[in-house]
Amino acid sequence: MRRLGLGRMSTGEYQANLNGLNMFFGAVLGLVLTGTEKLDAWQFGVMLFCLTGNVITILFISSSRNRVSYAVFALVNALIFPYVMGFLLRAPDLAPDKIQPTLLVWTVMTIVVEFWARQEDPEAAAQQT
User: Fold this and answer.
1) DSSP 8-state assignment for residue 62
2) Burial category of 128 from C-beta neighbours within 10 Å (exposed 0-12, middle 13-18, buried 19 and up)
3) What's the alpha-carbon Rg for the chain, to the nearest Å?
């Protein structure tokens, strides 16, 4: 696996992966939201509030010591997002259909990066000795 470049990630590679994922999926989510013209201001606000919660949960996967819990929570949130929006907005088809796959892929890719084996950080190793 190492010969293929699939060994342990360095700290820089880890940060580059997370930064790239977050920038890319932030942009994709913005593109996906172009399908929200049919929402009134209140409905759009509710959707933004719920999406913000999902995005924060995804970001917590790599920022919290409870990363397994946040990984599960983010997956569940992404899976139920359209149903929650249908319930909250009292209309099952108001949420753009591409939001769920965007959240799911972002969550899964973050989980892959977060749980991929990493090299020990040289600074942390020096502090332990």
Assistant:
1) T
2) exposed
3) 18
